[in-house]
Write a structure and sequence with these properties.
Elements: E1 2-6, E2 10-14, E3 32-36, E4 38-45, H1 49-58, E5 63-64, E6 67-68, H2 74-87, E7 88-95, E8 101-102, H3 105-110, H4 114-127, E9 135-137
Antiparallel strand pairs: 1-4, 1-9, 2-3, 4-7, 5-6, 7-8
Amino acid sequence: MHVFDFIPGEVNVPMESPDGELLLEEDGQPQMESKKVYEGKITIRIPTQIERLEYSQDVNLELRDGELVAASGTTQLIKLMKIASNHIVDIKLKRIDTDYEINDVETLNYDKDATALLGKIAQKVIRGVALGNGSRSQ
């Protein structure tokens, strides 16, 4: 099995008022902001080429010039989150705002900002990783 360490960067999350209310746009959609929510790392199992192609087909995604065409709709989002969750080998994360430690997939899936993070992981899984580029055999 080959793995790599995913270091979370900024993710798009809904903006909240100081009292925890969602801030909405004029059309009723949440206002979004890009910010770093987690620190630490997640060890991800690298998929085989066949897995990558099956995932792309299953989620109705396309790879164009090596880039994943973003999914839309709740069904695709659920599939992407399952793909990401199934490739997580180890988690050592901490929420920056609360210092809460997240050390397993189940706990991560309860966190309100996990959707954005799991989406980024799923995109990385489907795009693939060049062996030797930060990857290792485990």
